[in-house]
Design a protein that fits this description.
This protein is mostly helical. The chain contains nine helices and two strands, in the order H-H-H-H-E-H-H-H-H-E-H.
Length: 256
C-alpha cells in the first residue's frame, strides 16, 4: 500500500502537466462555452504556469503543434465530428465522477474517515477555476459580451449555432485589441492560484486514501490520464481551427 500511496501522490502533478492551461480554456470558451466547460471538468487538473503571471489567451495559439491548416468540413460531417467531441467530453466527465465516487466509497481517507466526498470535491474543483478565468476574459475582453441581457429566442439560436459549429468552420473569431483589462488579469491570476491549490488538494486526498492496492492504483491512474489525454486532444483540435480562421482573416486583402 505504501507504493500505491506514492503513485497516487504523484498523479495530480502528472495530470497537471497533461491538462489545458487557463488561457487555452478561456480562448475556447469565447467560441464554444459548453464544450470548454466539459473539457475543464473532464481534465482532472489544469496546467500550471508561473503563479501570478498573466498569459493572454490568444497567445496560446503560438504553441500549438504543426502549421497545416484544418479543412473546412461539410455541414453533415461537421455535425458528426461535433457530436463525437461532446460524447467524448461527456464520457470523460462521467469517468472522473464515477471514479471519484468509487474511491470515496470503497476506500478510507486517513485524515477524514467519514469524508467520502473528498475525491469528488477534487474532481469538481476545476469548475470555479473555469468560471473565474473564462468570465473574466469573456465579459471584459470581448466587446458586446453581456450575460445579463434578456434572453430571446434569436439570441439563444445564435448561441446554439455558435456552440455546435467547429472552430475550423467559423467565418471569423473575435480577438480583443489592445491591452487586457484589469478584471481579465485579476481573474486569471486568481484562477492560477486556485489551480495550485487544486493540485495540492489532489495530492493530499489521493495520497491519504488507504486500503487501495497497487493494481487498483494503476487502474485509477490510467483512467484519469485517459480522460486528460482525450480532453487535451479535443482542445488542441479546436484551437488549431481557431488559429486557421485567424490566419485566413489576416491573409485576406483589406478592401478599404
Amino acid at each position: 500500500m505504501a507504493s500505491a500511496s506514492v503513485a497516487l501522490a504523484l498523479t495530480p502533478p502528472l495530470l497537471a502537466g497533461l491538462g489545458q492551461s487557463l488561457a487555452e480554456i478561456s480562448l475556447l470558451s469565447s467560441q464554444r462555452p459548453v464544450l470548454s466547460a466539459l473539457l475543464a471538468l473532464g481534465a482532472p487538473a489544469m496546467y500550471i504556469n508561473r503563479v501570478f503571471e498573466y498569459n493572454h489567451p490568444p497567445d496560446a495559439l503560438k504553441y500549438l503543434p504543426g502549421n497545416r491548416g484544418l479543412p473546412r468540413l461539410p455541414p453533415s460531417l461537421s455535425l458528426i465530428v461535433t457530436s463525437i467531441e461532446y460524447f467524448l467530453a461527456a464520457a470523460t466527465v462521467a469517468n472522473n465522477t464515477e471514479l471519484a465516487i468509487s474511491m470515496g466509497v470503497r476506500s478510507v481517507l486517513a485524515w477524514g474517515c467519514n469524508s467520502w466526498a473528498m475525491p469528488l470535491l477534487w474532481v469538481l474543483f476545476p469548475v470555479p477555476l473555469h468560471v473565474i478565468a473564462t468570465l473574466g476574459y469573456r465579459c471584459t475582453s470581448i466587446p458586446g459580451c453581456r450575460f445579463w441581457r434578456s434572453l430571446t429566442m434569436d439570441r439563444f439560436w445564435r448561441f446554439f449555432t455558435k456552440e455546435v459549429t467547429l472552430s475550423s468552420n467559423c467565418k471569423s473569431f473575435p480577438i480583443p485589441e489592445g491591452a487586457p483589462t484589469t478584471v481579465a488579469i485579476i481573474s486569471q491570476l486568481l484562477a492560477s492560484a486556485l489551480a495550485v491549490g487544486h493540485v495540492v488538494l489532489g495530492t493530499l486526498v489521493l495520497s491519504s486514501l488507504i486500503f487501495i492496492g497497487f493494481h487498483d492504483t494503476l487502474i485509477i491512474m490510467v483512467r484519469l490520464i485517459g480522460s486528460a489525454l482525450v480532453c487535451r486532444g479535443i482542445l488542441v483540435f479546436e484551437l488549431a481551427g481557431i488559429r486557421d480562421v485567424l490566419k485566413e482573416g489576416a491573409d485576406q486583402p483589406d478592401d478599404t
